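FW: tagging you since you asked about this chain on Friday. Here's the raw sequence from the shared folder, copied in full. Didn't touch anything.
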Amino acid sequence: MARPIRVEFEGAVYHVTARGNERRRIYRSDGDRTRFLETLAETVKEHGLRVHGYCLMPNHYHLLVETPKANLSIGMRQLNGIYTQRFNRRHHRVGHLFQGRFKAILVERESHLLELCRYIVLNPARVKGAAQASTWKWSSYRATAGLASVPELLCTDWVLEQFGKSRSRAQQQYREFVRDGMASRPWDDLKGQIYLGSEAFIERHACGKKGIKEIPRAQLRAAKPSLEQIFGRRGEKAIGEAYEQGYCLNEIAAHLGVHYATVSRRLKRIEQAN
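HL: got it, structure written out here
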């Protein structure tokens, strides 16, 4: 399967995860967790990132990151790379700590960011025998809920503003919001491997600045117009556009009521003409 591309732009918000190589632990002690958060704070300061939420689990982490400068990849390379170096030195090991590159899902702020803030801090409670959100020290919950001081790396203003102008009242409502969220399933709305948002949001940001041939078809299909729309406006060139938008030959053939081989021949003629 082709790797999803990175869609980066100023002001983008992402749910970022990275898992330990072979699903092994990336933190062996609270000292490791502290060093990870210190490394995250350094990365946030250097690259101007905004972290709206986080949770450190034994073999992976979750971050909600906003990028005012469209620099997610640079920032995450620094975070994972420097933390790996520090972890290896501390534990006298060599080699990769994380399993491949990090995973980033582009999030529409208005429709999904608040729900993800809740989902992330509830991760410890979803693991059998683990701590509740209110007692798990290694997430953004306690700071956002007013139960602990806010670390420099964390931005709580946007989340709390969603619950009102009074900070104490907002913190109380946030605690209630999280408490009621165990049944939340934000990933049911995931499209094209990397999008959480409305159709308009996906269409606006699909593909970034890369050429159409570089983009995995699953991502194209998340934002594509219907075949009715394509063939209603493009005439003879509609087959080429439909294929570029991520439709397979069988789907195009079924829409036209012809054999897929016919579609293949027409597509080849269009490509040769170009």
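FW: The chain is about 45% helix and 10% strand.
HL: agreed, and The longest helix spans residues 72-91.
FW: great, closing this out.
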